[in-house]
Amino acid sequence: MEEKIYTCPLELTQKILSKKWTVIILWLLRHGKVRTKDFKNQIKGSNEKMIIEHLNYLIEEKLIEKREYDVYPKKTEYVLTEKGKDLLPILELMQSYGKKYYVK
Amino acid sequence: MEEKIYTCPLELTQKILSKKWTVIILWLLRHGKVRTKDFKNQIKGSNEKMIIEHLNYLIEEKLIEKREYDVYPKKTEYVLTEKGKDLLPILELMQSYGKKYYVK
DNA sequence: CCGTATCCTCTGCGATACTG
DNA sequence: CAGTATCGCAGAGGATACGG
């Protein structure tokens, strides 16, 4: 709908990474599927609403996919798509950088 | 001052990249010093205030440094610090990713 | 267990105008 | 040319409560 002027492709990747909880969600998914409650337990300082909101955003962007199982209680899992997996090398560098400069 | 709970070092790097114009500013600095007006000319969709604001933020975070020359008209240049240069590999991957998925 | 609906706060962003 | 000062707004982020 709305056309954005951008200087270079960098900005498009930046937009994904700019949302506060997307990075950590993708990171937790690097080894395979994760359940909703596990995100809740493992992500400090967030809350359920924010996590679900970001999960939906990531689905829209086709970075992750949802798997629902019709059991009781309800069970839902998320996995990375190829597009999502392609982000992992970036996240790994971000992790190293964070360790290098911000962890004593 | 304010202690933040975080899940992993990733989040600290994420915080830098989350600001809208930092990434493109650092990117323009990858080949050496850049003058204020050149940022203005080369960054589409932004404005002077935002750029200066982000430049100051990057100085606080010690990712760039300022060089002022006392001439008329005034001349100012910015350069990457080591900490800033260490971010370049990440930006390169972000650039490739952006090209791969968002440029036809 | 999973997700939605409100409501409210705060700040990032942008436009504009002005100073050295 | 470089930088500051105002003002305003939209939307991200967060707390809480409810529904399937």
From TrEMBL, chains A, B:
Is the Signal keyword given for this protein?
Answer: no
Q: Which InterPro entries match?
A: HTH_HxlR, WH-like_DNA-bd_sf, WH_DNA-bd_sf
Q: Name one Pfam family in it.
A: HxlR
Q: Where is the HTH hxlR-type domain?
A: 8-104
Q: Which Gene3D superfamilies match?
A: Winged helix-like DNA-binding domain superfamily/Winged helix DNA-binding domain (1.10.10.10)
Question: Its Gene Ontology molecular function terms?
Answer: DNA binding
Q: Which UniProt keywords apply?
A: DNA-binding, Transcription, Transcription regulation
Coiled-coil features, chain-numbered ranges = none
Supply the SUPFAM superfamilies for this chain: Winged helix' DNA-binding domain (SSF46785)
User: PANTHER family per the record?
Assistant: TRANSCRIPTIONAL REGULATOR, MARR FAMILY (PTHR33204)
Q: What is this protein called?
A: Winged helix-turn-helix transcriptional regulator
Give the originating organism. Leptotrichia rugosa
